[in-house]
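Researcher: Go.
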Amino acid sequence: EEVLLSYLRRKVGLTGTKSACGGGGCGACTVMVSRYDHNQETVIHYTVTACLQPLVTLHGAAVVTVEGIGSTKTKLHPVQERIAKAHGSQCGFCTPGMVMSMYTLLRNKPQPNMEDIREALAGNLCRCTGYRPIIDGFKTFCDSQSSGCCQNGTGGGKCCRENGHDDSSEKELFLHDNFLPLDPTQDLIFPPELMIRAKQGSGEVLCFRGERVTLLAPSDLLQLLELKFQHPEAPLILGNTTIGTSVQMDIGLLPKIRHIYISCSCSSFFFFSSILFLLPPSSFFLLHPFSKNTVGGNIMSANPKYDLCSVLAALDSTLKLCSKDGTRTVPLDDKVFPAFGKTILRPDEVLLSLHVPFSKPGEYVAAFRQAQRRELAFSIVNAGMKVTLQRDSNTIQSLRIFYGGVGPTLVTPALTCQRIRGCSRSWGEDLLSEACSSLTEEVRVSASIPGGKHEYRKTLVLSFFYKFYMYVTEEMRKREATVSCSSYPYIFILTIYLISYPQLVSHSQPSTDPVGRPSMHCSGVEQATGEAKYYDDLPPVHGELFVHMVTSSRAHARIINIDSSQALQMPGVVTFISATDVPGSNQRLWFNTVEEIFAEKEVGVLCVGQIIGALVAESRERARRAAARIQVTYEDLQPVILTIQVNFMKIKINALVQRDNQSVYEIYMGGQEHFYMETQGLIAVPRGESDEMDLYVGTQHALVSQALGISSNKITCHVKRLGGGFGGKIMKIAALSAVTAVAAHKTGKAVRCCLDRGDDMLITSGRHPFLGQYKVGYNSDGTIVAADITYYSNGGCTLDESAFIMDKALLHMDNAYRIPHLRGRGMVCRTHLPSYTAFRGFGGPQGLMVIESVLHEVAVCSGLSPKKVREVNMYQGDLCYTHHMQAFCPTDMLRCWDQCLQRSGYESRLQDVQRFNSQNRWKKRGIAVLPQKFGVGFSKGFFNQGAALVNIYKDGSVLVFHGGTEMGQGIHTKALQVASRVLKVPMSSIFIKETCTGNVPNASPSAASFGTDAVGMAVKVQKALCPRTVNEAYFEKISLSATGFFMGPPTYVDWEKGEGNAYYYFTFGACCSEVEIDCLTGDHKVLQKCINSSFLLIGSSFLSFVEGGFVQGLGLYTIEELHFSPDGTLLTRGASQYKIPALCDVPTELNVHLLANAQNPHAIYMSKGIGEPPLFFGSTLFFAIKSAIAAARSDGGLSTVFPLSSPATAARIRMACEDQFTHMVCASSPWSIDV
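Model: Structure:
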């Protein structure tokens, strides 16, 4: 029952393999498995996700983790070195998985090409970097023919300068010199003992017995059939398993049928190639990068969202089933699947082979799918279609159509197929109309279908058939032509261009001064080797216990009773804690608002996911199982409010001034899950005297809990590093810390809390959904005279930081535009959902989104180009005042805008877009360019402070402490750079151990893009002596410790007057994006991205923050979608339901430019904060998509003024491109709701 991941981390102590999602959907736990293959007579290497791999299935295999390929103590592997030097490791939590995927590729193919790398990393997710620096490091293993000499070319061995990318100011982001060569002798050999055993073969059935599961592994087919006869209800497994079955079997050890032999008239290679040609890469589930999946497993899972069944059924495939009594052959069609997850196989049968017949002349086959993400995502709808036409004729002989994702099983519209092929019908336009009408009647999609989007699914049924019709029609025109894979429109080949212009270092700056120079992340190497420790990597404390949260299953209810008796009787369970066990206060006070740690009976629960209690046990698994046995009795209360209630809050907006035109619109922007790779948690260790306690915690704000009723000086918080934060580890971790500390206090033992991904998403929530309503008045030239904007946010059940987030939205509602009469109001709506909290941008992306929507709608309504409308409304001059009367100079902002237009070739690309749209009906392109003005720092002035402690030792080494927390933003690295310059010592002599409240107390959160400003200035102003005079100072009894304190600017806002200097300074930028949409499916792809910014960086290695922020914004505005049920339950809880951008979603061309000679006298060494601003640039994709949709609607004679909510998912894009197919679909009650 135990999986490889838990064995490696908890029993072997190899914590380099990370636990992130627990469902095989992120790749953080990737390891390499090696086996001896009898058929090939060689050792094969492949990657697996350790979180899904049952340990017992690895009998006879060798497992290599990131620790096994290299370390700082022995020798780095080139993969580890290059990802670190290329700045491809930020928070570092995904890095070991990336390293192992690339390492396995190199073991199989020492000289890969770019497509090999893309395939190898397709299953690995990164939330920080935007993937570019990872690719930059790994493509150094490619030859120049496949990667381009300077990684900026188009291939073919051309130099980047030949490709037009030459610029005298271009600098390398990392040095390619002195890379460790790829040395095969460094690789671990396959253990000879395992090879001998594999060649000999035991010939016996292996039996593994666990606490709840028994696994039997046969060595040949006869043994398998005999075991299946004896245990007919036991399922077969290969890599993934369903825990809880009493008897399970594994065929992974069966050499001759491990991969399920495919008996077909063509070679297996041809079969695989054909499927890859027919389908987009992501749809071939068995070819997942962590490929222990099989064709047989895909079919027998009987899940309609898997793509193979619809394709194979359309191909007239047959299944050969085998049992102890003999074999039989059945056709693969809808009858094989009587219900969801069920097949017609008898309990004692197994799938022996799959037969796919040769195609014949006159046969046309196509497969289609649409998913939330191009790769590593289950399809929303998939389809396989085949038509056979008479030779030299258009008469239809047969038609096979199969759909997945429109019902609980595979669906075939038999009546439609019969009608179309009857009466010697020819393939023509009259057929199309009748077929669509028949499909509408026959294929019915339930409104309650899991996953929702039933209207979209029904539309895809028609759209897929129409695409098939067009495909066949086109093929008939070129009947003799050969179709190549490269011409298929869904094939995605990764090509990332990067033209970056980092800050130039002055010639007068000493070579030993690291400020402004590319500096590798100070923990980059350790993160690449797996040696870097996160809170859950710390070794167990003797007698350590584990806590699991018990959460509410009701959105609004009174707690009648909590019965823990059944749970407490389970073995290994220690205690159950709730509000009555809190020795101090069960309430946390946050700016005059109160939040409960545990829900109290008198108050009740306010959302699904609210913490009611916690179960403490001797192991994680026992705590989890026992928590499920806690019985809570509720009394439901009314009302249950889940959505932003605006009907009763609509305010009549009076005319502000006279103007030519006025319009009233609204835009809805959905929330976003942080999806940091490391889930939240901590370890609470009581010290046994004076009520002292240490908390080893992953937090952006080292708070101490008041729940114990003891003073803060007795609780010490230690923060080594975070596996990502993005604002989500500021407030929410406080409640988890309190719960864990209470458990440690009650038991007197160390207690570890580590949330599962699903619980983390349920309890901690994410970015606030916003609704913006606005009325705007403008002149005929596009000049906006007045705008009245009302913001509504869904704050959840408690206030959390919602008021501050609304403040930031209002303070950013002007963006780059001077609007003479601008009024904004913000309302935080209390609902019965988990409290929404801080997220990268902190309300800025929502506020900016609404004003850009205003500009976009004005352009559409006035018939002007969006670029012109934005230009005529921009701030101009040397001194301007924001709508809250803060002075600033827009010169750099205007320079960014002009250079972005020039570098992106906006005008010529706009003409190309218009030309493309005039020539294509069902594919459209759009382009959008936006400026940005983003405030840096906290508007609450007291947060703008930083502190540091510098200790110098007698040997000249330096130890630095500061109040910031390292979460991938490189704050430690930048602090080292500052200290190196100030103290005039090399960075190698300076060390930062951790963030600790015992050394630097009362620190502000590491947030608001202000961490480096605060910490850097604190390190800069400390008065420590130069280490070269250490001995003299020591003998003179002079202190070798110094503190530095930075008191930031007095930012404030007088909300009564609506004015104030809200921010320390502003960061400027501009971005241009071009997209292409498929009007029939809603699929989109980003063609090109150009970002021009006035960001200055202490080290240009942090350029990837711009790219990482943009990619996270890409997810916010186009991919990431949270779903709640009508009763308030979060439905998207895990990597399989919630999709963040993957490598395949990165633009095919991504150009980032930094503005030269942009000075910022306010911040440390003229730099600017870049943590948050780039995220909003993802909205350029949204507005480019909206422009493309408008072009499609224009072709259909529809209005180009239409609502489009964010994110612009495939479903929303498709339904906005209204046409005859969408009009054939009837609306009904939704499966989920917009909150």
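Model: The chain has 30 helices and 39 strands.
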